[in-house]
Amino acid sequence: MVFEPALALRGVRKSYSSHLGLLGKRELFSAVDGVSFNVERGSVFGLIGESGCGKSTLARLMVGLEQVSSGEILVSGTDVAALSRLERARKIQIIFQDPNGSLNPRKSIGSILTLPLRVHRLGSPREQNRRAVEMLDLVGLPKRVLDSLPGELSGGQRQRVAIGRALIMRPEIVVCDEPTSALDVSVQAQILNLLDDLRVEFGLTYVLISHNLAVVEHMASRIGVMCMGRIIEHGSAPDIMQRPQHAYTKLLLSAVLTPDPSLGLPSIDDRTRADAISGPDNRWRSS
């Protein structure tokens, strides 16, 4: 029996146009260039790569905040381009990097949590409030914060609210775009453990985007390495982290800071990086 992946990307591209100088001609450049991968139901697919490689653009494409230039994004075999915005929002949600920017500072936590239910016209106001209280309990927050504003909560508490808002519609897939990078180190583990517990409880599928390779190695079952808008290597987490094949992946892993002070700071110049991306020993791998 062949099982349909929860999420499948098929040759996804996103191009933007820009002018070369004030009177220059318009040229196209690809932020995402032919990305394809599958994410199995209930699993965590990690996406790693340096800043500017297209990870966040890909996240925005998956949830419909931007439209693909070409290619397909399939959720349970259905092309999301054929779905309405509301139908798409029920299937896939996103948790942004910074809760300070993703939560409306003028709205109460109760209003923020119930907004998706109100937009989709699910339940009466009383039922919506009950579901908001249930979601607060699931993310580890007391009922009393319903009347609080985001500015009255800590960073970790705000991110718990953002997680609750993403999950209150019970989506199939959640895109986690750097979900802990804006938090103190002491809080990051709590949020990661919460995300993992909720994934197991609700059978969620995650796409985890992070610069923190240790987080991705811990959470993900499969990892994709992104460079210049393309997936240059993907495979199981142990294979990518311990036995990388592509020169760029090796370079990326070598740039991780180590707690051993005797090893000093990693140093990668532009020439080394360019050789890793386009050198003759590069092998694009999919396993």
Summary, kept brief:
With 287 residues, the protein is of the alpha/beta class. Helix content is 37%, strand content 24%. Helix 4 (109-119) crosses helix 5 (125-138), helix 4 packs parallel to helix 6 and helix 5 packs across helix 6.
Question: Oligomer, anyone?
Answer: single chain
How much of the sequence lies in strands comes to 15-25%
Mean pLDDT value: 86
Please give the alpha-carbon distance between the first and last residues.
20 Å
How would you portray this structure in words?
By secondary structure, this protein is of the alpha/beta class. The protein has one domain (7-286): P-loop containing nucleotide triphosphate hydrolases (Rossmann fold, 3-Layer(aba) Sandwich), CATH 3.40.50.300. Helix content is 37%, strand content 24%. The chain has 11 helices and 11 strands. The chain has helices spanning 55-63, 85-91, 99-102, 109-119, 125-138, 155-167, 185-202, 213-219, 237-242, 247-254, 270-278, and strands spanning 7-19, 26-39, 44-48, 70-75, 78-79, 92-95, 173-177, 205-209, 222-227, 230-236, 285-286. Strands 6-7-8-3-9-10-11 form a 7-stranded mixed β-sheet, sandwiched between helices. It has a 4-stranded antiparallel β-sheet with strand order 2-1-4-5. α5 (125-138) packs across α6, α6 (155-167) packs parallel to α7 (185-202) and α10 runs antiparallel to α11. It is globular. The two termini are 20 Å apart. The model is unreliable at 280-287 (pLDDT under 50).
Task: For the structure shown, list the relevant keywords.
single chain, 287 residues, alpha/beta, Rossmann fold, 7-stranded mixed beta sheet, 4-stranded antiparallel beta sheet, 11 helices, 37% helix, globular, disordered C terminus
